[in-house]
């Protein structure tokens, strides 16, 4: 059973959506494989099961998070509403899920990440992945969240990765950097692009080993799910990036 989210919700009832901003980090320094300072990525959450971190997740509204379907698929969720599209268990296609919290998060505990508003030009972009996953292929989970800057591959490069064309669907993207990758336990967590407001472009989904040459991390391509998210997040108060002067 999915027991708890790492950020606990306190009672705070609010009905109408107040204007809010997304994607503002708190003093983020962008380098690879670095500890995140507390509150630096205020949208990053962990999913716990029996008090152990099983996956990451991203806060996109005060009572909604995105994660990977395979993190919550067939797990009894008595306290969460989980929506998932056509998740394909054999190839992890459509590995995206929305978690709706019974109680909204307290305002001081989070800031949401922005969602892409259109298909993003992602090929070659620098992005940051973060989570509590292992820091080496067979290593233990990290006790603190870590972030690493990696690069998004083009679709052609991704299709030509060690996995072979058939494994990578148009709903996925590849990303890594030499010696840098997401790993076990990072699933469901955010891959964000700073533009300059942090936008969720990917969700950690799968990979062979971790940081193996020719085998990048494979992520849900969030912008492919915008129509689906419109429906799945219909009860959410999502936020917009601050307007430029
Ligand atoms: N499915 C894995 C999870 O639990 C994520 C794997 C990501 N792998 C990678 N090489 N990037 O935690």
Key terms:
245 residues, 7% helix, binds arginine, mainly beta, 6-stranded antiparallel beta barrel, single chain
Radius of gyration: 17 Å
Unreliable stretches: 1-14
What string, H for helix and E for strand, traces the elements in order? EEEEEHEEEEHEEEEH
User: What percentage of residues falls in helices of 4 or more residues?
Assistant: under 10%
Q: Span from first to last CA?
A: 47 Å
Q: What is the mean predicted local confidence, pLDDT?
A: 86
Content of β-strand: 25-35%
Give the biggest sheet. 6 strands, antiparallel
Neighbour order of strands in the largest sheet: 1-3-4-5-7-6
Number of helices: 3
Number of strands: 13
Question: What does this molecule look like?
Answer:
The protein is mainly β and 245 residues long. It has three helices and 13 strands. The protein has helices at 69-72, 155-159, 226-232; strands at 4-5, 34-35, 44-49, 52-61, 64-67, 80-83, 97-101, 126-131, 146-152, 172-176, 190-194, 198-206, 217-221. The structure holds arginine (ARG). Arginine binds next to β12.
What would you say about this model in short?
This protein is mostly beta strands and 245 residues long.
Task: Present the secondary structure layout.
Blueprint: E1 4-5, E2 34-35, E3 44-49, E4 52-61, E5 64-67, H1 69-72, E6 80-83, E7 97-101, E8 126-131, E9 146-152, H2 155-159, E10 172-176, E11 190-194, E12 198-206, E13 217-221, H3 226-232
Antiparallel strand pairs: 1-3, 2-9, 3-4, 4-5, 5-7, 6-7, 8-9, 8-11, 9-10, 10-13, 11-12, 12-13
The protein binds arginine (ARG).
């Amino acid at each position: 059973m999915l027991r708890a989210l790492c950020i606990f919700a306190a009672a705070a009832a609010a009905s109408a959506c107040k204007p809010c901003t997304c994607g503002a980090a708190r003093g983020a320094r962008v380098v690879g494989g670095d500890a995140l300072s507390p509150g630096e990525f205020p949208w990053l959450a962990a999913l716990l099961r029996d008090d152990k971190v099983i996956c990451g997740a991203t806060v996109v509204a005060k009572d909604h998070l995105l994660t990977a379907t395979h993190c919550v698929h067939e797990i009894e969720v008595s306290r969460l509403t989980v929506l998932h599209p056509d998740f394909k268990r054999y190839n992890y296609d459509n590995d995206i899920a929305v978690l709706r919290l019974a109680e909204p998060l307290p305002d001081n505990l989070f800031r949401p990440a922005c969602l892409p508003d259109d298909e993003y030009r992602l090929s070659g972009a620098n992005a940051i992945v973060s989570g509590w996953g292992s820091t080496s292929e067979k290593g233990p989970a990290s006790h603190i969240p870590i972030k690493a800057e990696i690069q998004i591959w083009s679709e052609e490069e991704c299709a030509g990765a060690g996995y072979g064309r058939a494994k990578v669907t148009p709903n996925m993207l590849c990303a890594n950097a030499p010696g840098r990758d997401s790993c076990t336990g990072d699933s469901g967590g955010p891959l964000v692009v700073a533009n300059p407001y942090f936008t969720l472009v990917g969700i950690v989904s799968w990979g062979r080993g971790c940081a193996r040459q020719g085998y990048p991390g494979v992520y849900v391509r969030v912008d492919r799910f915008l129509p689906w998210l419109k429906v799945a997040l219909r009860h959410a108060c999502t936020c917009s990036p601050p307007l430029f002067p």
